[in-house]
Queue: 3 jobs
Job 1
Amino acid sequence: MTFHSFRKALLMTSCAIAVALVFAVPLALRADAAPAAGATTFTFNNVDGGQVFVRRWIPGGTPKAVVLVVHGLAEHSGRYARFALALNAAGYAVYAADNRGHGRTALPGKLGDGGPDAWNGTERDLYQLSGIIAKEEPGTPLFLFGHSLGSAFAQRYIELHGAELKGTILSGTFGAIPNLPDVIAQIDKASAGDAALQKTIAPTLFAGYNKPFGNRTAFEWLSRDPAEVDKYVHDPLCGFAVTNQYVDLFFHGFADAWDPANEAKIPVTLPIYILGGDADPVGGNTLSVKALADRYDVHGVKDLHMTFYPNGRHEMLNETNRDVVTADIITWLNEHLAT
């Protein structure tokens, strides 16, 4: 299968993926020059010798729970400040790291290059961060929130560590790609050798996302709110291309996450909340999302809730009805904190 035919298959089936996606070690705490609103920041050294940048938003008083946010591809943790402050007002602490190859975790000149083990490495970083959270907020329940590619990281995380979570929220998620083994074989070839660091595959795969929405900026598929789209476009830490190697690694990661043997490891008692827009091309206009939810249902997940917002696009936290979406999330968190 060629990349052209793969893209055509994605468009025809309306299934796609996101562009926007423990070993305790001493913390390297430092103040950030320009933290997101209300945030404090720190870095920690991961087990591979890299440094991971983290934002945290802490409410007044003792947090009733912590929400660990995992951002999507070609964005960063600072974009979740508004959401975090709303959660703070409801009594929740929020932590969010910049993933490998992203934001202030990326090495100078390496934006979009997550390194040779970006998928598994990010999973390790998230679990290491959960250990740091447990030390800073001992005994506090932990929820996981993953958006877009971050939701794919979250899908794998709940297979590995779901028993340690109070619940999981998957935003702008997806759960199927047509002819995935053939696609992976093609990407393996394109990312071999020196081509691995070229940034040529992702634009080919994602070119069709904006077709239903016009092309003022090429990112109208993110939100119906032009101001939010413009924020993304003008953010130097958003919208960048990633290396072929990174694309290859996260496609292999999808295959791992969607392996029936791995999905069978998700605790059936773990509450899972799936939310998105019904016009989100990343979720195949709900088709790819429903494929994931159907598998979780067959697996026997006892508390599975799914909400699709009419006409909503990819980033429901930045959509025109974002206040409703945020309120719905807080309601779900409160309900599941009480159980």
Job 2
Amino acid sequence: MTTFLAAVFLFGLLIFFHELGHFLLAKLVGVKVLKFSFGLGPRLIGKKIGETDYMISAIPIGGYVKPLGEEIGEEIKEEDKPRAFNNQPVWKRAAIILAGPIFNLILAYLIFVIFLGVKLPVAIPNLNSMTTTIEGVAEGSPAMKAGLKEGDAIVSIDGTFVHDWNEMAEIFSKNPEKELSLKVKRNNELIDIEVTPEPTNIKDEKGEEIVVGRIGISKKLDFKIVQSKEIVYAPLKGMEAVYDWSVLTLKVVGRLLTGGVAAKQIGGPILIIDSAAKAASAGVFTYFNFIAIISINLAIFNLFPIPVLDGGHLMFLSIEAVRGKALSDKIMNAVTKIGMALLILLIVFVFYNDIVRVIVPWIHGK
């Protein structure tokens, strides 16, 4: 139940802020908004205030804003045409679309400002410090017995390339007492090393004792710490924290596209739900810090130039601004279908990753 509530609150807050951005900008520039729904699916309850139906729908994860004239081919009364979304100049439509991701950044900003205002720090990891280069080898450990040394970079484990320290550590953790074949980079040369993780008893998030594999290597992960000594500086420092997390997210996306980060590291709703539950159990600070980070990720993901996402709509508007007229409905429909197909493939892929990383270990009791 705790997991469900943590997930519902997280998704609800993220999507509410996103849709609130679209809604407020639409109202601000004079576009008629027909619906503002918290949740998806059938309408449960609601109240029409003025021209907008404010409602709660059956599925609590999600939400949407429906401005007049957003859909292709929508019938619009003559007197409503000046206030229809599709009849607005490019800059107004772009502002409405862009407001969603911006409000997700605002949500993260507000969370960080509150943390900094009460003198809690915001930590941003240094991506370069998360490489697989070993900084320490414990005396008498499996790593030392196998011949691993400080400065070695582990390239692959049993033929699987590893891209960061956490990914590598997870493999060792899941394979106690199993001999693993490592490909190691030492002084610009690749060497082969066999190592067997030593079984170690630890306690998981629930406080239950489990057995994991350890080989006795260590690394100091580097973090940038954003702090505010006085409450008056919190708003400025909050902007710095959002900026740094946004830059880190873009770097991860860049490495993902160039192969520097494994595609299997991409997570979806199941992983987010699992992580949200763990963050909630770790405390209020950890939970809301997680919400802020996911909100920044959501903002950036929504700006990808993929049809059906906000970034795709902005791409169409950019083309319209250059051409002086919108693309035909036929082209828009065709491109949107392609974008939807790509998005569905991405969803299937992240769900597969989630099942492998969360559901399968849960079934096996790991």
Job 3
Amino acid sequence: MRFLTADYLFPLNKNPLKEGVLQVNEKGDVVAILKHRKLVPDRNLEFYNGILCPGFVNSHCHLELSHLKGMTTEGKGIIDFISNIKQRNNYSKQQINVAIDLAEQQMIKNGIVGVGDICNTNDTINQKTKNNLRYYNFIEVFGVTNNTLDSIMIDAIDLRKQFRELNQKATITPHASYSVVPALMKSITNNLDIKDDLITIHMNESKLENELFENKKGAFKDWLQELNASHEIWEKRNKTLDSILELETKKILLVHNTFANEDDLKENYYCTCPKANLYIENSLPDYSLFDSTKLCVGTDSLASNNSLSILEELKIIQDNSKFDLNTLLKIASKNGAEILGFKDLGSFTEGKNPGVNLIQNLDGLKIRNDSNILRII
């Protein structure tokens, strides 16, 4: 049995406790939360300077793109970024696998215990069978014409099957409103089953999306026409959120939301990836629009980020919002665990095994630029 204590304990299922004690067993399961150190003999206590909180949940990641770190151009916008991603196939399987392994190690070191991961290939399967982290795998589909829909869905269903056969959570999900025709949205809905808990979609990541749907013009429309895309993409939708109605499904996680307005954020869950938003579009969402109980955070990929660190993302959110530390930690852990269905993660609730992070070098109860994280369990 271990008794962990720090300047503050943030259980996330109850208010923070000054000098609180976390009791865990040898497996890391939470046994109890004790309100004060006086309840435990000093000889049994493990003392830490800083705060203790549950492990983080990276709610939006592209682990399979880890080999593209430093290979894209910063600040050129979403179309340039997507074009750069095409070089993903110019690498050997060995290079890709090594990068995936190193990226997962980085997440573990940075206190991440669960991941919502976008998958276009099976490149990450072998790594995930090691069960180092908990994954919800979103099998992402693109389809801007109507003549390839059958083959797209056959491939997606097969990839979902590969993950599920290895006891991995997996759901087919659309990339974005501008990259999926209405018929493919319908096909995704038709192929959902009882194992599908959540759909995720990139949403309002660029101003170009709004220009495409609301004004039927702009760089996105030019780009799509170069791809011989179906005009249904923009003609049947008057705003980017209209594609959600086509899914006719339950829980949806909107990712990025950099240029979202208040109406866009109703009735759904949402994920922010601030460092990637700055990298690609040099913009951030208006965090005052978000309901903090429905907001989670992701790192996106190493193609759009120089690290896979939730703490680094929180530093940016804190500087651009009025969220206090307890709210930020819920965004980083509890909310993501709930949205992704990781029932034993996200809080120091008795019986859960959420991991334990120590955050050091704080300014009272505010994160500093030099704050760092140490994974305790």
